[in-house]
Task: inverse folding
């Protein structure tokens, strides 16, 4: 049985292709069933906006890939041959590594982003729900979740926020602690503002005040996010009542200047005020950052913090890759042992079978055998068998590469050798 | 006997310090918790050693440098435990704990044998005056560290460079709130300490106020904090200004406590 993955991601395919091959939650079950019907009994489909991947366990690699391409092509109206330009296919060790990297966010566009683990879990859940996972896929996915968790635990890969909004929220928390009792004033109703505002709302800000040059737009946004709209000229008064100010207007001139804020701070009794200016050109006079207890971050400041975090993530991602390598080795070793145990048993069984047969033959030729002689003959044959087998078994145990295992199977004529699917045995090995 | 328990508590504090420093580096909740419980056990041992010393000596054991430093550290631990119960300030422990350990190590360098109490100190005012003064100073001592942390964090936010360290400190608002509490609680204690001292001086030295260096310097300290309180309430001083003032006040305390004895002498020479 070989584990493989076939698919595409943001590095191999442009967005149009990814869009065409995106498989929504309603389609995946149908596809899973169809793959099963075509003999790919173990398969799992992972489809996000940045990747579409099919994981499978198979005996015949080429046949499987061909089937997958055909089915995918049919569903997405793409020529199967044409798909090859954008897709990759990994098997065995490379496939495990790929899944480990994907689940821990190391293969994501934004390295270390946490959502992907949930998406992988969902993909696996859907597959198990449709009885499309067997022993091998189950093992690989469970191992994957462990590895992803270990990476979260041991590295700081997801530690620092990357998006501008999350950096702004982190800063707000650094200044104010929890945001539950804080008020935010939004100046402007652009798209950026609206998105950022939703994040602040999620943090549970107490009150949202909205103002805009066109009052009507302010009212509209206020209705949408449950806030209150105020006229544009009220800004100085509004500044005395809020803790955070988010600005993003299309104004050519700064709309909040240093004099206003200096006056406001007196009225506020110097309670801290945090300006987040995501407008270009800037809405807030940059010099207000010099006023005590006033903090101003414009879009460049937020960007550069996010860049630093990105660099931090790169170092963390190196650590994470090391963990993946380590876990891959462990997993491969484990898989080999999985092959080895039954093989050794089979060799001994085969030998015992031969010994028994030959012993009976010999005994039938002898007329009278007393118990003592029988015992000695028995022991003699056993010892011969064991001594002959010993080097083979120790070779398997010490150096159980697939080639050696294959060789042993041939040597002992164990062609019909079947892999043991005993889950319990595996688990006990896993714990060890 | 009490001195052995004192050393025991010192070693437990050192252990707790190690945990708290590790916490600052590794930032794992469990380490902080272990550190905190270690601190609590150290505190119990320390409290016990102080009570034992009280019984062995027969007077409030705040009469020489060893006893004073030890009691001062005890007060700081008290203050820290109290603040920790109120606010989430785990990483502050990583700064307070080393200072507590250092104070106790310093204390252990001074002679710790119990001597008969000088007649001038035989008074009911001894525990009142010392305990209030020390608690007040311990609160300001904590406020000093809170202020330093505030300034580091504030600076990193202003300069738009969040360092790993400032990322781990509490929010500015929390730090400022603690700072304010330190002033609000520390000031009354200090005031009672000074007034009780003055009354005691009236009995012991015949004059309530004799402009002894210790008296003068504690008055200066008192004035620094009085200005701070006034400005905070009246003009809304917050954040950086409060933090700087707390630091000035702290140095004034330091001088009152050590400088006066080591450099100026005077009536208050025993401590």
Result:
């Amino acid at each position: 049985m070989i584990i493989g993955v076939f698919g595409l991601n943001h590095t191999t395919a442009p967005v149009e292709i990814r869009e065409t091959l995106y498989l929504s939650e309603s389609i995946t079950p149908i596809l899973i069933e169809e793959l099963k019907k075509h003999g790919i009994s173990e398969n799992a489909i992972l489809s996000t906006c940045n990747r579409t991947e099919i994981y499978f366990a198979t005996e015949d690699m080429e046949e499987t890939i061909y089937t997958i391409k055909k089915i995918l092509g049919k569903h997405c109206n793409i020529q199967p041959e044409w798909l090859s330009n954008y897709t990759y296919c990994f098997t065995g060790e490379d496939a495990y590594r790929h899944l480990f990297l994907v689940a821990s966010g190391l293969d994501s566009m934004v390295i270390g982003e946490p959502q992907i683990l949930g998406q992988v879990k969902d993909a696996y859940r859907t597959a198990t729900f449709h009885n499309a996972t067997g022993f091998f896929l189950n093992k690989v996915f469970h191992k994957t979740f462990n590895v992803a968790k270990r990476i979260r635990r041991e590295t700081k890969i997801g530690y620092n926020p990357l998006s501008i909004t999350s950096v702004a929220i982190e800063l707000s928390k650094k200044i104010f602690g929890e945001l539950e009792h804080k008020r935010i004033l939004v100046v402007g109703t652009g798209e950026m503002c609206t998105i950022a505002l939703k994040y602040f709302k999620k943090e549970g800000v107490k009150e949202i005040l909205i103002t805009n040059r066109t009052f009507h737009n302010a009212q509209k946004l206020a209705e949408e996010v449950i806030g209150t709209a105020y006229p544009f000229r009220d800004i100085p008064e509004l500044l005395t009542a809020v803790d955070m100010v988010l600005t993003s207007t299309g104004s050519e001139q700064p709309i909040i200047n240093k004099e206003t804020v200096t006056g406001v701070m007196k009225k506020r009794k110097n309670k801290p005020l945090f300006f987040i200016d995501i407008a270009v050109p800037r809405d807030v006079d940059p010099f207000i950052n010099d006023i005590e207890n006033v903090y101003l971050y414009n879009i460049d400041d937020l960007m550069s913090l996010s860049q630093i975090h990105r660099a931090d993530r790169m170092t963390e991602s190196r650590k994470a890759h090391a963990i993946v390598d380590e876990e891959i080795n462990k997993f491969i070793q484990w898989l080999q042992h999985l092959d080895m145990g039954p093989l050794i048993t089979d060799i001994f069984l085969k030998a015992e079978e031969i010994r028994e047969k030959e012993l009976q033959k010999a005994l039938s030729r002898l007329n009278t055998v007393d118990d003592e002689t029988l015992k000695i003959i028995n022991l003699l044959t056993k010892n011969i068998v064991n001594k002959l087998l010993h080097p083979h078994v120790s070779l398997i145990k010490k150096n159980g590469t697939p080639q050696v295992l294959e060789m042993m199977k041939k040597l002992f004529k164990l062609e019909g050798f079947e892999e043991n699917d005993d889950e319990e045995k595996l688990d006990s090995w896993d714990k060890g | 006997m009490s001195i052995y328990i004192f050393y025991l508590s010192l070693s437990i504090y050192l252990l707790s310090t190690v945990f708290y420093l590790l916490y600052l580096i590794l930032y794992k909740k469990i380490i902080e918790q272990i550190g905190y419980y270690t601190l609590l056990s150290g505190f119990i041992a320390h409290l016990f050693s102080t009570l034992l010393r009280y019984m062995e000596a027969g007077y409030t054991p705040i009469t020489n440098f060893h006893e004073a430093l030890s009691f001062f550290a005890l007060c700081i631990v008290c203050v820290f435990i109290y603040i920790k119960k109120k606010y989430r300030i785990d990483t502050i422990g990583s700064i307070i704990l080393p200072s507590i350990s250092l104070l106790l190590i310093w204390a252990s360098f001074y002679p710790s044998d119990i001597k008969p109490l000088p007649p001038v100190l035989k008074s009911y005012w001894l525990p009142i005056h010392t305990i209030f003064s020390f608690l007040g100073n311990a609160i300001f001592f904590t406020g000093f560290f809170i202020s330093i942390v505030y300034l580091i964090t504030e600076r990193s936010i202003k300069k738009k460079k969040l360092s790993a360290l400032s990322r781990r400190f509490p929010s500015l608002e929390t730090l400022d709130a603690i700072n304010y509490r330190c002033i609000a609680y520390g000031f009354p204690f200090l005031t009672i300490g000074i007034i009780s001292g003055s009354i005691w001086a009236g009995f012991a030295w015949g004059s309530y106020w004799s402009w002894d260096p210790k008296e003068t310097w504690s008055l200066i300290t008192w004035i620094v904090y009085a200005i701070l309180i006034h400005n905070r309430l009246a003009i809304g001083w917050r954040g950086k200004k409060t933090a700087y003032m707390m630091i000035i006040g702290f140095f004034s305390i330091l001088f009152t406590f050590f400088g006066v004895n080591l450099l100026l002498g005077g009536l208050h020479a025993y401590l």
